[in-house]
Amino acid sequence: MAQQVENLEELKRKLYLFAVPFLIFALIMNNLFDASVGVGFYVDFLLILYFSIGWILIYKRILFRFVELSNLVFVSIHQITQFHQGVHENLIAKNESIGDFSMFMPLIVVFMYLSLGRKKGLLLSLIIFFITLCLGIPYITEIQTYAMDSLVKYYLANIIYILAFYYLQFALGTFTELKSIKSNAYVDPLTEIANRRKMYLYLDNHLKTNDDLSVILLDIDNFKSINDHYGHDVGDEVLQEFTKLISQHLSEEDMFGRWGGEEFMVFSHTSGSNAMKLAENLRRTVDYYSFTKVGHVTASFGVTSYRAGDTKESLFKRADVALYQSKTNGKNQVNRIDAKELGRA
Question: Which key words tag this protein in UniProt (predicted)?
Answer without folding.
Answer: Nucleotidyltransferase, Transferase
